[in-house]
Amino acid sequence: MTITFRRETFRDDYNFSNSAVGIRRFPFPFDRDHYMYAVNIEPHVKGHPGTIYESLIDVDEHYVAEMQDRALVLAEDPLRSQSLPHMELAGWDLLELLMEQLAAGYPAHFELRRSGKRWRWVNRPLGIDDTFVFGAASTLPYGPMEYITRQAQGDFCILDQRDGNLWMDAGMVTTQADWSLDFDLGMNFMEWHAPVPRAHEMGVFDRALKFMLNLGQGQPMRRFNWTMTVNPRLDTSPETYPKWGPDRRSVTADNVGDKVHLRVELQSFWRLPRSNAIVFPIRCYLIKLEELVTVPKWARRMHRVLRDLPPDLVDYKGLTRWRPIAVDYLAAFDDGAATSPGIWPD
Amino acid sequence: MSAPSIAVRVSEVAAVTPLVKRFRLEPESGGRLPAFSGGAHIAVEMQDGAHRRRNAFSLMGSPSDTTGYVIGVRRHDNGRGGSRYMHERVTPGTMLRIAHPANLFPIDGRARKHLLLAGGIGITPLVAMAEQFARDGQPFELHYAARSPEHAAFADELLERFGPAVHTHFSAQGRRLACASLLAEQPLGTHLYVCGPETLMDEAFASARALGWPEQSLHRERFAAPARGLPFAVRLARSGRRVDVGADQSMLEALEAAGAPVASLCRGGACGQCETRVLACDGTLLHADHYLSAAERGAGGKVMPCVSRFAGRSLTLDL
Amino acid sequence: MPETSIKSRPVYGTLAPQPGTRHILLADGDGAAAIVDLARAAPPEFFERAHIITAPAAGAMAVRAPLRALAPAVLDETDRLAAALSRLAEVLAGAGMGTRLYVAGTEGTIGQAMQVALDAGVELGAIATEHRGSRARRVQCAHCKTFIDEVTTQPVACSGCGLMLFVRDHYSRRLAAFQGVCVDAEEPGSAPTPEEVFT
């Protein structure tokens, strides 16, 4: 499969948008007309062509632009990529996983040749052709995790498993929904989820942790999370909050369809073989409300979900200032008709 | 979650001691097996006539070698038959199915030093750990306790491979492993890994705790061998079926054989994956796992069919 | 004792003697009394294997005398928290398994002593803590990464970049600090007046 990569930006002039094909393959996260926090984990297996499940590590038309944006974030703030000293082995695991998945899923764009420990990696969209020794960090321009995650869409958290818990001891985080890797690095599963409202009381994290601790090799799992962002900005970090926070006041009835984006995270979980760590890719997909309403089912459902969202979740997701404007906008696309089950367009 | 399995061919069988054999398993279709981490095990599936057995064995080869897996199997004549099957029936060329590696005895990569204590066949996961530490340049020391050199499978090759990092302790020669004095002189940041008879593991942990070692630095292999027992029957509430569990079969194996599989991982009572709800129990649940708390056992609402059994009139499971 | 709100908020206990081959006790002026209280429950030989390190105000005579009266094997009296922390790092560099650490005092003292200990390879389970004294917090600015000590107000002005920070309950052991995030980013200039809350 050959992808035509878009030339676009996720900052300054924000000229990101989805093609018609991109809209159809968007992972709309709501399978019913209301939302409540849930573990909602399912096996991460391949799905139909034309969906984001075509390959288990999805590459789409935004790939090159997203990688350019990541490089800009890292140039300003190198602490977005960190790996505690004991996590290097897991970094090699991740490098192998991503290279194998990319090469298998998109042979026109990526190529991996292994000759014992000597590997050659070709990334055509980014113009990379490197030969290195697997396991020898000195043969790469960055550590193994940073090297490969500068070439893969989405954020990556690597979790060390010990003492009956998971510890966020490495990661590449530049497309996050307002959390800081630099601050959360070294925390355990309960600690880094601490700021999430409601879910602790519901026992969601206890169950999720127990499940994750038993995650099997060769059996990746996935779930969705979501929020909404004003402007197609990938880097909504606490670090840069003063830069993007004021945008929340910029939403008007005239620009809401273009400015407000549904931001969906496809989170997957993979047991890494050599390190017994877990990698947790958090892949961010953005869609403008005016793109989303071109699918009638999604428009109706988005309106109902946003209208009925509990106030604490509205605050936690940072939607407070402009939610009424977005609800009004979406209401025009909701005729009250019933919606079909599942997430796919009718 | 039922794991995809891998077809392997036995490429090599070697008698290491009168009781221990080493097997090398290679991918049936060529290519590579998944990489693994020191301390990991695989479940091996054996088709013994009409009887399908699954036993978990620690991987003892180098975690860097993905051309084949090595397991060391001690023959237990009073066990349920899995190890006897491996010893008597499995020869070079035998085809087997295995699950992906899983690790319930993982290494703590933060450790400043790794102290490995093995008793008898408990040596196997520690061999893979030693290989990993040697590869990654991490300090380690391996102490191997056995009755005599003849009982210490793999000791010679370990000494040859890792030299001064390996220490043997043979009780028949009056050189019993002295846990307390060994543990008293370890640098800060040392982690302890013990695998062997329960008595050795208990002694090592008790010594370490008395000296003030924190729990986070103590690691042990937590396999409970599924015990033989008396036959019994279980009733499956959803299908109304009755499943008979034979004397040399675990409840989990019987459920799998009857086409009512339960998700499982360690098959040794440690991981909690096969936890099953008990709907009615007229008799006694014979819990043998390390997973359920005393309170959960007391409540009688759950059982781990991989190792636990039942005695009494009737047992109904939520299956 | 600060109340527990979210799961990353540290929870402190009460110091009590633990099994161990060596006991390192570190306290600031407020925490010294916790060591004296621990001594009441300690077996007679406990202080023969104890090393007490005191920071700032513990140098005051009122707390110095009772600590000396415990007759620890070593007593290090320092005049700054930084000096106490570097002394702790030196002691731990030569320590063995079986070493237990006890820290008492303000959250800033506890957090920074734990940071030194974790860096030295001490496991969390070998560290006991007891909060005494002020509830002032050590805060890291999310934006310029400056650490601000002894924060008592909500919000607080960053001493590095000047932004007004909301002090979240979210705490990092690795950084020994609470997270401070710009309180008026969405509407610059709208920050509320700081109030004394961490006292």
UniProtKB/TrEMBL annotation, chain A:
InterPro entries: HODM_asu-like. This is DUF3445 domain-containing protein. It comes from Chelatococcus reniformis.
From TrEMBL, chain B:
Residues 232-319 form the 2Fe-2S ferredoxin-type domain. CDD domains: fer2 (cd00207), PDR_like (cd06185). The keyword Oxidoreductase applies. Its cofactor is FMN. GO terms for molecular function: 2 iron, 2 sulfur cluster binding; metal ion binding; oxidoreductase activity. Residues 3-108 form the FAD-binding FR-type domain. It holds the Pfam family Fer2. Keywords: 2Fe-2S, Flavoprotein, FMN, Iron, Iron-sulfur, Metal-binding, Oxidoreductase. This is Ferredoxin--NADP(+) reductase.
From TrEMBL, chain C:
GO terms for molecular function: 2 iron, 2 sulfur cluster binding; metal ion binding; oxidoreductase activity. The keyword Iron-sulfur applies. The keyword Repeat does not apply. Residues 5-123 form the Dimethylamine monooxygenase subunit DmmA-like N-terminal domain. InterPro entries: DmmA-like_C, DmmA-like_N, FNR_nucleotide-bd. Keywords: 2Fe-2S, Flavoprotein, Iron, Iron-sulfur, Metal-binding, Oxidoreductase. It holds the Pfam family DmmA-like_N. Residues 138-181 form the Dimethylamine monooxygenase subunit DmmA-like C-terminal domain. This is Uncharacterized protein. It comes from Chelatococcus reniformis. The lineage of its organism: Bacteria, Pseudomonadati, Pseudomonadota, Alphaproteobacteria, Hyphomicrobiales.
